[in-house]
Amino acid sequence: MKETHHRVKNSFQIVSSLLYLQSQNIENKKAARAVAEAQERVKSMILLHQKLYQNDNLMGISSKGYIENLVSDIFESYKLTEDVKVAYDIEEIMLNIDTMTPIGLIVNELVTNVIKHAFENDQAKKEVFISFFRRNKNIQLSVKDNGVGLKEEDKNTFGMKLIHSLAKKLKADISFVSGKGTEAIVLIKKFKEV
Fold first, then answer.
1. pLDDT band (50, 70, 90) for residue 32
2. What is the DSSP letter of 147?
3. CB-side exposure of 22: number of CA atoms within 13 Å?
4. For the whole prediction, is pTM greater than 0.90?
């Protein structure tokens, strides 16, 4: 199993490298950004298989380590590690790969949306708070920022459509609370612990 996860991780790394190379040859900035975002989605899958490969429990992923590493990688790829303060409140839950895969992709999309849309350039304090915990018989994921709030045009992006599609797999309810910043709340009803 370890060897299988290692090979899958390596295959994803090849795909990621191909996407990177392709993005370097695209002159249209919007198209280049779309390919770079696809590369970020693949990176979330690479991290998932890397965690499985390094883990003694080959069937499950620790929510805490995976989500924190994933978010850190996203901010590093956008070169924002010093500009935005990120805080976490993540419960340690061991979930199987079929549960963690869509969760990782949803986290990737929500955090990327924050980076792209939440903050004004002159905003002094930029903060993101990510929580993940059991709530009754469900699991709740929340990504909250102190930015400008969700705009109407941000609701119909490919990323938002992907979030809603992935949420169906988890039988999750999604809500967005907008005011001083935005909070995305994903209440996950279908998941498997290991």
1. confident
2. S
3. 15
4. no
Beta strand segments in 43-106, E: 60-62, 85-90, 94-96
- Cα 140 to Cα 154: distance, rounded to the nearest angstrom: 22
End-to-end CA distance of the chain: 16
Element (H, E) at 85: strand 85-90
Tokens representing 110 are 């929500």
Question: Which 3 state secondary structure label does DSSP give 138?
Answer: strand
Higher pLDDT, residue 133 or 47: 133
Identify the three-state secondary structure at position 180. Answer: coil
Instruction: Determine which helix (DSSP H) or strand (DSSP E) holds 136, and give its type and residue range.
Output: none
- Report the chain's C-alpha Rg in angstroms: 17
How many helices (H) and strands (E) the chain has is answered by 5, 7
